[in-house]
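Researcher: Please predict.
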Amino acid sequence: MSYDPVADGELAAVVTFLEMHTAPGAPIPASPLALRRTEQPDLDDYRALFRKVGARWLWFSRLMLDDAALAAILHDPQVALFTVDAASGEAVGLLELDYRQAGQCEIAFIGLVPELAGQGHGRWLLAEALRLAWRDGVTRVHVHTCSLDHPAALNAYTRAGFTAFKRSIERFADPRLLGILPADCAPQVPLVGTLTAAPSPLS
């Protein structure tokens, strides 16, 4: 066993890749939340929801993309984006399914705002994601999660029927130190390094 140092200002995570080749038959739990398909989403609205859902877990990849790169993904007809709405109409989660690889569906992003954690809504959302992912022609559904994600994420995926098939180590600059996410957004991950000025707005 050995320790590999991580440079100041960087983070490292263990990424687990999971897949399933047969649609699960479990019923979908009840929930007061609802999924709404979002066609041609407004990019700033998407970024705001992405932050709202994922900042606690240091989601930042989509926040690094300029408008053209982000639109190329979200406006692709083979990418399906859904907003999770509360009964009040407030957006409280998102689901993004990527069918761009023939015969496959990647659950690219799935999550709810942290305030809804521990109430059973995540199990409902994952069940809905799988119902939608297994459309005609799909023979494999896959997803990945990392050690910086919600601590229940990996167990939720395996409970839903996914099987882990690969692990990798991911290293990246801490998005809080780059000013992409607030410095206090993930208190469970200590900051090690020096804060820099926030980047200029994407255009």
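Model: Helices lie at 43-54, 67-74, 121-133, 153-160.
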